[in-house]
Amino acid sequence: MSDFLSWVSIHQSRFEDAVGRLLPQTDVLPQRLHAAMRYSVLEGGKRVRPLLAYAAGELAGAPIERVEIAAAAVELIHAYSLVHDDMPCMDDDVLRRGKPTCHIEYDEATALLVGDALQSLAFQLLSEHRLSDDPSRQLQMVRLLAAASGSRGMAGGQAIDLASVGKQLAMPELEQMHIYKTGALIRAAILLGAHCGKLDQAQLDKLDRYGKCIGLAFQVVDDVLDSEADTATLGKTAGKDKDNDKPTYVTLLGVQAAKRMAATLHQEALDTLKEFGASAQRLHDLADFIVMRKF
Amino acid sequence: MSDFLSWVSIHQSRFEDAVGRLLPQTDVLPQRLHAAMRYSVLEGGKRVRPLLAYAAGELAGAPIERVEIAAAAVELIHAYSLVHDDMPCMDDDVLRRGKPTCHIEYDEATALLVGDALQSLAFQLLSEHRLSDDPSRQLQMVRLLAAASGSRGMAGGQAIDLASVGKQLAMPELEQMHIYKTGALIRAAILLGAHCGKLDQAQLDKLDRYGKCIGLAFQVVDDVLDSEADTATLGKTAGKDKDNDKPTYVTLLGVQAAKRMAATLHQEALDTLKEFGASAQRLHDLADFIVMRKF
């Protein structure tokens, strides 16, 4: 596990360097917007999606310089969604990763544009760098990220989430919401990393199955942590879901059953990796990490 | 000119059908978000960008079925920017194209997500349909639209615009703002239409020059109309720019000089079309249309 933690630390640091180079510098016009974009992306978060992309890229034998461009594209989409999500008309959060949220540090209009511009930049990265020797495959990567981000992906999941406040959702609806809201982008991170290498469709399908399990497990664990943690540990305002009367796996199943569900998804994810042998070690470790994390 | 007006009407109607098919239907989950997306895009606007794409596609001998996918992608970016622009933290507008703006008809959170999801859909369209026989060229189209939309394109122009309220901008700054804010997407519309056909780089450069002139002329005319028109004719709240103390070509140059500037840009645009002969007729007509429009 200490070997894994050093892998995490090395790749987090690599990623930080890469995304710092890929984001526009603060001396480029419009300077304030670029500063706010960097503020919203850099020095924050566990970088779960980039780590998954790196690990899938390793499994697929992909050049790491390509994988981290794809990883950055996914993380920019994730970062933009947090900026918009924190705005007063959505979750109205003032704290994120222990820092003031973008609209608090800057202003609402800037936060709106930061999110918009981060999304554009994600697609610019995926199209202006060479990520595959086959341009058709690279177009497929653009399509994958666009679908995962849009109204039948992440943004759609947020819309269902909004509509669910104060309602008692049934299990299939809650699951559909999270498959869209968190799952789609986690799956995209894994597949984009893998597409930078050479896997056949059956192997990609296996990885997608792993991603689906891990995506759901991630959300279940998030709900458990949110119900148990306090604000200081979490680095964001804790207990918001319950305050907002939002349905979660914990409110629906109770803490114990939610923990069992995470364990089952965890095992299923590990099972799908078996055929890859040692090359799947990092994805295996990440599955453990996601389910056992305490923050 | 009547031949041109019938061309406009036929293509506006074709476009409406196409984009109606390309947007998710209202019976697809999440239904309310999809209804709000359709509300924000359909039945509205002059469709200047799609018309420019159709005209450039004609010049380039491109299949119209491909051109209108590219046209839809550009128009979705334009539509999302209007939805976000109208929100209370930006221009705070309640009326757009004679209808309540998205956040008035629905709510702010939905308007935020509508804009986000329309942007994703634009890139999904550009990547999931075959728009060129050469996938590398199609990747270039994605890059072009992403760059035109982002922080060194449309979103960046809006950031400069926000920062300029209450300031007296000099001419080069005002021009840079509009090259980003309106110009980038108009140029993208023309180039994307052209990329669906077969033009060489020198020809594409000529078209880009045409686009740059037309983009600026469009904005100058917009400022003139805004300073002269009333709300009923414009279909949106008139005189907002002056109320907001925003710099415009009219406040900087006066109405007469602004009109002369539009005429000069108009002529320059027509000059760049000369080498294309009759195949540039529609782009020629559109230049006239943009400069002489009364709404």
Automatic annotation (TrEMBL), chains A, B:
<keyword id="KW-0414">Isoprene biosynthesis</keyword>
<dbReference type="InterPro" id="IPR008949">
    <property type="entry name" value="Isoprenoid_synthase_dom_sf"/>
</dbReference>
<protein>
    <submittedName>
        <fullName>Polyprenyl synthetase</fullName>
    </submittedName>
</protein>
<keyword id="KW-0460">Magnesium</keyword>
<keyword id="KW-0479">Metal-binding</keyword>
<dbReference type="InterPro" id="IPR053378">
    <property type="entry name" value="Prenyl_diphosphate_synthase"/>
</dbReference>
<dbReference type="GO" id="GO:0004659">
    <property type="term" value="F:prenyltransferase activity"/>
</dbReference>
<dbReference type="GO" id="GO:0005737">
    <property type="term" value="C:cytoplasm"/>
</dbReference>
<dbReference type="InterPro" id="IPR033749">
    <property type="entry name" value="Polyprenyl_synt_CS"/>
</dbReference>
<keyword id="KW-0808">Transferase</keyword>
<dbReference type="GO" id="GO:0046872">
    <property type="term" value="F:metal ion binding"/>
</dbReference>
<dbReference type="InterPro" id="IPR000092">
    <property type="entry name" value="Polyprenyl_synt"/>
</dbReference>
<comment type="similarity">
    <text>Belongs to the FPP/GGPP synthase family.</text>
</comment>
<dbReference type="GO" id="GO:0016114">
    <property type="term" value="P:terpenoid biosynthetic process"/>
</dbReference>
<dbReference type="Pfam" id="PF00348">
    <property type="entry name" value="polyprenyl_synt"/>
</dbReference>
